[in-house]
Write a structure and sequence with these properties.
Blueprint: E1 5-11, E2 18-24, E3 31-34, E4 40-42, E5 52-54, E6 61-63, H1 72-81, H2 97-113, H3 118-134, H4 138-158, H5 168-181, H6 185-197, H7 205-225
Antiparallel strand pairs: 1-2, 3-4, 5-6
Helix pairs in contact: 2-3, 3-4, 4-5, 5-6, 5-7, 6-7
């Protein structure tokens, strides 16, 4: 196994069995760059590949910081809708992009089975889109960007902020940028304008700067589309 990775034993909250999961060593988490929709590119190893833990025994999957948070009703839903059809397989050790996509889609399935909040679904869909970006599969990237966009819009309208660690202004920015990336430039311009005009956004000057840049880019793209 890559020496930047290590295995750790944890208890699966769905089946109460001890399993092994793979984590990235802190020293490997060196950021190379960030895309305008917050996708992080790493220098040594793609940390995102390992952000979902999967129980090889029952099929339960979740982002590692959410792995332990299950209610009794969730356990029942997972057993009835995932575990009974689960074919045991391991997700420990080094992952390529396809294995990472499989893990994230299992996490998405778990969220849907649990009737999880749209903010949680949006977060996972956005990361699946990033994985397809790494794979240079633009059609699937756009597909999951659209899924993330719809879920974030619903969460923005119906959930209380912060959404996990996401504040309202950052959520608005992500919605705006996703609109731009899926080619809905009018909507992107509207959302970027709201950020720039928002008094609350003044506490995030770097985000305002990004919103201004993307606002202008969306306007240029819209003008090009209409020529």
């Amino acid at each position: 196994m890559n020496d930047l990775l290590y295995n750790k034993k944890v208890m699966c909250p769905a089946c109460n069995r001890e399993i092994e999961v793979t984590r990235v060593k802190t020293k490997a988490c060196k950021v190379l760059s960030r895309d305008t929709d917050m996708c992080v590119h790493y220098e040594n190893i793609n940390v995102l590949f390992y952000d979902v833990w999967v129980c090889d025994n029952c099929g339960y999957a979740a982002l590692q910081d959410k792995f332990e948070g299950l209610f009794t009703r969730d356990v029942k839903a997972i057993k009835e809708n995932i575990s009974k059809n689960w074919i045991k397989r391991s997700f420990t050790g080094e992952r390529d992009v396809d294995k990472a996509i499989e893990a994230f889609k299992l996490a998405l399935l778990t969220l849907k089975v649990r009737n999880a909040k749209n903010s949680e679904i949006a977060k996972v869909c956005l990361r699946i889109a990033w994985l397809y970006r790494f794979k240079k599969h633009s059609a699937n990237e756009i597909k999951y960007l659209n899924f993330a966009l719809e879920a974030y819009k619903d969460a923005y309208q119906n959930e209380r902020f912060p959404l996990d660690k996401l504040d309202e202004i950052t959520c608005m920015y992500i919605i705006a940028e996703l609109f731009r990336r899926v080619g809905k430039f009018d909507e992107a311009i509207t959302w970027f304008s709201r950020i720039v005009a928002s008094p609350e956004a003044r506490s995030k000057p770097s985000l305002i700067d990004m919103a201004r840049d993307q606002y202008q880019l969306a306007k240029d793209q819209l003008a090009e589309q209409n020529t």
